[in-house]
Known about the structure:
Layout: H1 2-39, H2 48-71, H3 76-91, H4 110-143, H5 148-152, H6 156-176, H7 182-210, H8 217-224, H9 232-260, H10 268-283, H11 290-308, H12 317-341, H13 349-374, H14 380-395, H15 402-420, H16 428-450, H17 453-477, E1 483-489, E2 492-499, E3 508-513, E4 516-522, H18 540-546, E5 554-558, E6 574-579, H19 582-591, H20 594-597, E7 601-606, H21 609-620, E8 625-630, H22 645-654, E9 655-664, H23 673-683, E10 686-692, E11 705-711, H24 714-718, H25 720-725, E12 727-728
Parallel strand pairs: 5-6, 5-8, 6-7, 8-9
Antiparallel strand pairs: 1-2, 2-3, 3-4, 9-11, 10-11, 10-12
Helix pairs in contact: 1-2, 1-4, 1-6, 1-7, 2-4, 2-13, 3-4, 3-7, 4-7, 4-13, 6-10, 9-12, 9-13, 9-14, 10-12, 11-12, 11-14, 11-17, 14-17, 15-16, 15-17, 16-17, 21-22
Amino acid sequence: xxxxxxxxxxGGALALCASTIFVSAFLLFLVQPLxxxxxxxWFGGSAAVWTLCLVFFxxxxxxxxxxxxxxxxxxxxxxxxxxxxxxxxACAMLPVIPDAAWKPTGQGDPAAGVLAVLAxxxxxxxxxxxxxxxxVQSWVARLHAGAELRQAKVYRxxxxxxxxxxxxxxxxxxxxxxxxxxxxxxxxxxAGFGLFAVLAIAxxxxxxxxxPAQAGAEAAAASAAPxxxxxxxxQLLWLVLAALGTVALLAVSAFITQDIxxxxxxxxxxxxLYLLSFVLCFDSDFWYRRWLFWPAVLLLTPVMGWYLxxxxxxxxxAAAIGLYCAGLFAICMFANGELARARPGPAxxxxxxxxxxxxxxxxxxxAGVFAPHFFNGYWELPASLALPGLVMxxxxxxxxxxxxxxxxxxxxxxFGAFLKMDAVxxxxxxxxxxxxxxxxxxxxxxxxxxxxxxxxxxLAGALAAAAVAWLSVSSVLEADNRTxxxxxxxxxxxxxxxxxxxxxxxxxxxxxxxxxxxxxxVMGAIYRRLPTTYYGPQSGAGVALRANRAAPQRVxxxxxxxxxxxAYGRAGDTMRFYEINPLVTAAARAHFTxxxxxxxxxxxxxxxxxxxxxxxxxxxxxxxxxxxxxDAFSGDAIPMHLMTREALALYLRHLxxxxxxxxxxxxxxxxxxxxxxxxxxxxxxxxxxxxxxxERGNVTLEHTSDYVxxxxxxxxxxxxMVRERAEPMEAASGARAALWTDDFxxxxxxxxWQ
Length: 754
């Protein structure tokens, strides 16, 4: 009877612990998009805000795991008291709603501002949530002290936590965000945190009651003590593998969302694959097989490196996204599978998680903080593609015959260099095929000589790393000759491309942010003053600026690009541009002439437009714009704070009664017109849509464009040009008709599904 009662108590304690871990992990990943959505408008809607949030959470995770590692060595009663105090302190910071006092002023490094507001708002609650997983797992290990088989299954709770994280990742954008306002989400999360705190305290009490008698606390501690110290090689391997997964996740996410396709919420797919790899690898040894995932990594990483080296991005978008998602999953399964193989016994569980968190933080800081400041492109991606092969070489080091391995490696590289010489006339396809064939032969022969396939895999890993490095260096050295500028900062990577012979009549330059064009100019003397791309005379911006232009105008533009709209400026006009990215301003002035050629008085104001407009209103009153062009919705990181009820009210205060607001909504993936129609109806404005599709081959490089014009001016509405080019808009229904506010927006509802 006593054994049955103890077993029942043990089962109840285990169920409580599993519930606590699931709820903590669910809250852990739910708070990340929740807090990021709240502060995103404060920092210009930049995609870098998401990356910095991830870096912050990884650093706090590291602190939490350090706390758990140190606390888990104390008696259970001490752990219960200390952790309860942390939970109570975290509850004092609820709800997780950032204070408006943390809004940036537009000066200084935005990265520091993001980290500061995160620390002040969610730092302690997040710390409490992230410490609980490893801590509760250590309690379960104590509960099963002496039962090695049950202790070995403690790591399955780590898989359970990642399953909860994956569930939160899916629930937030598809269930919570479309239905609930941000404040409601924050309050609900805070209530969930209260439930979690109760579960955590109940878990430690249940474990204390159910723990088998061990002749005192000292005996229990002795049973949990490690038999031998951990080697530095093992700990370094954990660190490197954890960093590899994080860098690969951040680098691939940035690349596919900015260089392949700027599809909103596409970042969910890489993160889901990353979490899924944790679930599979720590659930059971069944899922990770070296014979499957090592060849997958060796095949996919050079192919991904090859795609980086193709200037025209020759694969279809769907195939390119599929390639990089498959490659990321293979790399994450390799990294996390090797972590699962190398995991220590449950007695060293918290140290293992501490080093995992340290590796994740190092990888996050490298990709999220170091790379944007010191790289001029996404060079962390080639690094994450080359590293798995080197790790394979290290893991297979015991099987290697090093003299033969170095010789084979040198032969393959030497043969590749020989074929690459100008004296050898072979096509690129023949070159790649010849090098791959020789590499496969060398790897196979190495495996045969060593009587172990791992030896050949080690050589193949080194060759795959060399191939990625070779392709990446070639991409830099032979970089498309048309690239005049390549720079990067917090807001992303920019490049200026030259088309045609410089000085020729029809030569042109284009400013690119990933796959998004920020403007293009024909550089010949005859055409360089003509507005191009999305801003031609027949576009919505052109109609708004050309109609009823008897008197000098004062024009505001949110988003500079290359300054194309300055081409409409006349003597006496004022063109005031708001631009958050200083690199865009520098490129527009140095490589394009729209600003310098304009007859108007041109002003470029640095910072987030909405914050600046509010500051200007408070300090000096309204700008009294005749036309305000809002041109910030063509990319992936949609700055939704620029098209809410509150934003429109701010624009109207800066607008003359006869003014016009022109929203540029050309976007392949979002239908923003119904949102603007609803905003216009709410503010008592007439909404008109101006769509333009130019003829192919036009000299002024005009693009298909889509605008929504909002105004109250009857004279503008009656203008013949407006009546000819604009069409009235009908009210939308369903999710597309929802009124966007600072507290609610539904990006999923405006996605174009076809």
